[in-house]
Amino acid sequence: MASKIPATVITGFLGVGKTTLVQHLLANANGKRLALIINEFGDLGVDGDIVKGCGIEGCEDGDVLELSNGCICCTVAEDFIPAMEMLLARAEPPDHIVIETSGLALPQPLVQAFNWPEIRNRVTVDGVITVVDSAAVRDGRFAHDEAAIDAQRQGDDMLDHETPLSELFADQLACADMIILNKTDLLSAQEASALEARLKGGARVGVQFVKARMGAVSPATLLGLGVGAERDMAARHAHHHHHGEAHEHDHDDFESFQVELGAIADVDAFVARIKQVIIKHDILRLKGFAQVAGKPMRLVVQAVGPRVDHYFDRPLTAPEQGKTALVVIGQAGLDKAAIEQRLRG
Asked: Which residue has the higher pLDDT, 8 or 68?
């Protein structure tokens, strides 16, 4: 029988740098056929489009599957297994499958899903990679903006587990075969070493720690661990024991909506407007794409709290000409008209 196709699971909270890690992985794949499964949140497939639009040779749209119906560990049968079967049924299956989970996904149920009869003889978990926002954890948080994670939680109608962030973080550490301490450029060498020593207490013995900035970790480090994690579930103790039980959620606390604009005239002025509207209206997260008048490249915009990141990622397509599309996430009661008017300038 042919050897199993390896799959790498990448987990971590919203904003820790998972997508940046995946982009770097694609850019340095050196001819390896990679397929991606991305568990997206929001009205726009922003993370998927960022990866698809990276302009990297060999990264075709068909190699990126987005699961947007909710937290991946809660939709295993409906979404994840069919997506895996689709990849495995290709005439030329991928050399390696990379799965970027939602920041809310419990890693243990997802790894356990690789034992499902439909896929267990064809694919194996090469390793579980947990990405950590080093600066946030140093400062006593689990991510740069925990309120944005709560908004993500409330916006996922398919979520069937109400796990405290502390327990979810503990599960991410306990399930990991490798822990990426990302954003270590924001820490001193002593702080990074102290953080690693502290997190080792929640990880399994022998788990590798890798310090990184901007998700720059070589494929040789991330891929080829050969762990077979699905055969080792007993060692990956989960702190959350009630997955699959029904829970009541109040989904009225947060909301998201999409704003469509025309081309923008000035990037700096546009970013300044975004920062002002985020502060004035207490917006938790904003993300999307824009065209800058006279520029052939698409502008990616991602904001977590008042921090706004933006960069050009690829040439605009014909349907994108003259268009800007943003997703706004915040607490219920957002003044949509005022926000849109302010973004229009």
From this structure: 8
User: Residue 242 and residue 315: Cα distance in Å, rounded?
Assistant: 46
Asked if residue 284 and residue 155 are part of one domain, the reply reads: no
Residues 50 and 105 in one domain: yes
Burial of 193 by CB count in 10 Å (0-12 exposed, 13-18 middle, 19+ buried)? Answer: middle
Return the half-sphere exposure (C-beta side, CA atoms, 13 A cut-off) of residue 94: 28
Same domain, 69 and 27: yes
Domain span at residue 146 reads 5-235
Dihedral angle sign, alpha carbons of residues 46, 47, 50, 51: negative
Q: What is the pLDDT of residues 9-45, one digit of tens each?
A: 999 987 888 888 988 888 888 888 888 888 754 444 4
CATH of the domain at 334: 3.30.1220.10
- Contact (CB, 8 A) for 43 and 258: yes
Nearest Cα neighbor of 67 from 42, 38, 46, 89 is 38
Q: Which of 201, 235, 269 delimits the end of a domain?
A: 235
| pTM exceeding the 0.85 threshold for the entire prediction | no
State how many domains the chain has.
2
Find the range with the poorest average confidence among 30-34, 58-62, 207-211.
58-62
Same-domain status, 27 and 167:
yes
Sequence-distant (6+) residues with CB within 8 A of 191 are 138
How many angstroms separate the CA atoms of 130 and 134, rounded?
12
Is pLDDT at 199 greater than 90 in this prediction? yes
